[in-house]
TrEMBL record, chain A:
PANTHER family: TRNA-SPLICING ENDONUCLEASE SUBUNIT SEN15 (PTHR28582:SF1). This is tRNA splicing endonuclease subunit 15. The gene is TSEN15. It comes from Gopherus evgoodei. GO terms for molecular function: nucleic acid binding. Gene3D superfamilies: 3.40.1350.10. The keyword tRNA processing applies. GO terms for cellular component: nucleus.
TrEMBL record, chain B:
This is tRNA-splicing endonuclease subunit Sen34. It comes from Gopherus evgoodei (Goodes thornscrub tortoise). Residues 16-54, 191-210 are annotated as: Disordered. Constitutes one of the two catalytic subunit of the tRNA-splicing endonuclease complex, a complex responsible for identification and cleavage of the splice sites in pre-tRNA. It cleaves pre-tRNA at the 5'- and 3'-splice sites to release the intron. The products are an intron and two tRNA half-molecules bearing 2',3'-cyclic phosphate and 5'-OH termini. There are no conserved sequences at the splice sites, but the intron is invariably located at the same site in the gene, placing the splice sites an invariant distance from the constant structural features of the tRNA body. tRNA splicing endonuclease is a heterotetramer composed of TSEN2, TSEN15, TSEN34/LENG5 and TSEN54. tRNA splicing endonuclease complex also contains proteins of the pre-mRNA 3'-end processing machinery such as CLP1, CPSF1, CPSF4 and CSTF2.
Length: 174, 349
């Protein structure tokens, strides 16, 4: 599939040969209704909108999320997405961003406060998923939460079977 | 000081009386602190201990002398084993042992005194009024009544050596005598048998002479004590931790002040903290003593306006995830309080 490079769609990429006539692909991204919807929100620049579009496609097609919608946050100048990971779960907020954008800690907290959906249980902390989009369309997802979140404990049985762990333990106990 | 044949030093010079360690879990010698409920940002800390509010009066009543922290070009060192122990047990500050062990010098697995403290740890102790920062000096006038010259110290040391030798000789002689008395019968039998073989008459009078021969302990066999703590401190003068100087340059530096704020806040919540350079962070945050628990968080102090490049954020979070720790961004927030943000891998495949 012909995919545009890192430049935003809608602008003709320079130096690219014209598609053969009758090809089923064409510049399908530029006319995708969701992309046009995001651009029409007119809150962010084209690179962020493009990143948001890629994350939208990845969430729906790649990760099989449900009910993914896009929301424009004017004061943050971002397009962010909301969706459910599984049908019965709560809505989560995903904030797409191109990799070259730099954030301050303060901006991250601002994003968390403004983009987050107020949940029914008031004691659950503010949390968003930051989706970082590389120039080759790789997306990595990292979860930001306000406050202290303990890491997941190690899976005990998994470690028991680990040969390396057993060797290390033998060495320690010697 | 007394006569102790055992060498002082080692880890803390005394048995480390920490509470019984967690029963060994399947993932090795350390536990994970899973019994504690996950903490929220506003709730009390994980441990059910009282918050550490040490007032000056209680400090003064427990110890007659303050902990001495020797500073040298920005490094804070504690040379006394008792002080090092108190710092860990009472003040929940860990530090790092950086000295060579006198009996096992050429290795890095187990190190001994001095205990090096982070600048934040030293400052915390000074602020609590439990410690003073000192530095060695030669310009201090001698204490009244005592002119401690180098020669007199050497003389005193030689005198002690000689006394120790005499006592060792006496004890060794007595032990030898007791041993010979125990084996006297067998020795006499052996002698008699030998005389029979040679065909002489048994002569019991000669045998007993063996027990009276003077015993001389060879100097080379003497046990020598190597003191690993100075029982009489060298000349020191106090250093003001609030103003920067050659030996304590941290005061007033914005980076240090920011780190200290975060350190103080996390320490105040009941955590144990140690240096985080092994994991690319500022501090490692433990729910309990680092000997018993793995760290839960890698704390990164960032000024609120400093830009964080995303690739650095990804690298730090990914490292944290692979070593089972949460990355904690800490910076002063609105209204003077500190803001903490946890970063984890989202787990989306």
């Amino acid at each position: 599939m012909d995919e545009p490079g890192c430049s935003a769609p809608g602008t003709p990429p320079s130096g690219r040969e014209p598609e053969p006539r009758g090809s089923p692909c064409g510049n399908w991204m530029a006319t995708h209704p969701k992309l046009t919807e995001m651009m029409s929100l007119d809150v962010a620049d084209s690179t962020q909108v493009y990143a948001a579009f890629l994350v939208y496609l990845d969430l729906l097609e790649g990760k099989n999320w449900y009910n993914v919608t896009c929301v424009g946050l004017a004061e943050l100048q971002l397009v962010c997405l909301r969706g459910r990971e599984r049908e019965a779960e709560n809505l989560q907020v995903v904030v797409p961003t191109p990799v070259h954008m730099s954030f301050t800690h303060q901006r991250l907290r601002e994003i968390m406060q403004k983009a987050c959906i107020p949940q029914d249980e008031t004691d659950s902390p503010l949390s968003v998923i930051l989706a970082i989009v590389e120039s080759d369309s790789t997306v990595v997802y990292y979860k930001l939460t306000d406050g202290f979140i303990m890491p997941d404990p190690p899976d005990d049985t998994e470690d028991m079977d680990n040969k390396q762990w057993r060797k290390k333990r033998r060495k320690l106990l010697r | 000081m007394g006569h102790c044949w055992r060498e002082r030093g080692g880890l803390f010079g005394a048995t480390f009386s920490s509470p019984n360690p967690c029963p060994p879990t399947s993932n090795g010698m350390k536990g994970r602190g899973q019994s504690c409920p996950p903490s929220q940002s506003h709730s009390p800390p994980l441990l059910k201990t009282k918050p550490m509010g040490i007032e000056k009066s209680s400090t003064a009543s427990c110890r007659s002398a303050m902990i001495q922290i020797h500073v040298l070009e920005g490094a804070a060192l504690v040379w006394s084993a008792e002080d090092a122990r108190e710092i860990r047990e009472r003040f929940r500050l860990v530090g790092t042992l950086v000295g060579a062990l006198t009996r096992k010098p050429r290795q890095n697995a187990r190190l001994g005194l001095p205990l090096q403290l982070l600048p934040e740890e030293a400052r915390l102790l000074a602020e609590l009024g439990a410690a003073v920062l000192v530095r060695r000096t030669e310009t201090q006038p001698p204490a009244e009544g005592e002119e401690l010259t180098q020669a007199s110290l050497v003389e005193a040391y030689q005198r002690e050596l000689e006394e120790s030798y005499q006592e060792q000789q006496r004890l060794a002689g007595a032990e030898r005598g007791a041993l010979l008395a125990q084996l006297a019968e067998r020795i006499a039998q052996g002698r008699a048998r030998r005389r029979e073989q040679r065909g002489e008459m048994p002569d019991t009078v000669e045998d007993s002479g063996l027990l009276d021969s003077p015993f001389v302990l060879p100097r080379g066999s003497m046990m020598v004590q190597l003191p690993t703590a100075r029982w009489r401190p060298g000349r020191v003068e106090q250093v003001d931790w609030t103003s920067p100087s050659a030996d304590w340059p941290h005061a007033g530096r914005p980076a240090h002040e920011a780190r200290y704020r975060v350190f103080r806040e996390l320490w105040g919540r009941g955590y144990y903290l140690s240096g985080g350079s092994k994991f690319g962070g500022d501090f490692l945050v433990y729910p309990g003593d680092p000997l018993r628990f793995h760290a839960h968080y890698i704390a990164l102090c960032c000024p609120p306006e400093a830009p964080l490049p995303l690739h650095a954020l990804v690298a730090a979070t990914r490292l944290g995830t692979s070593v089972k720790k949460t990355l904690l961004l800490c910076s002063p927030g609105a209204g003077g309080a500190l803001a903490f943000t946890s970063l984890q891998w989202s787990g989306l495949q």
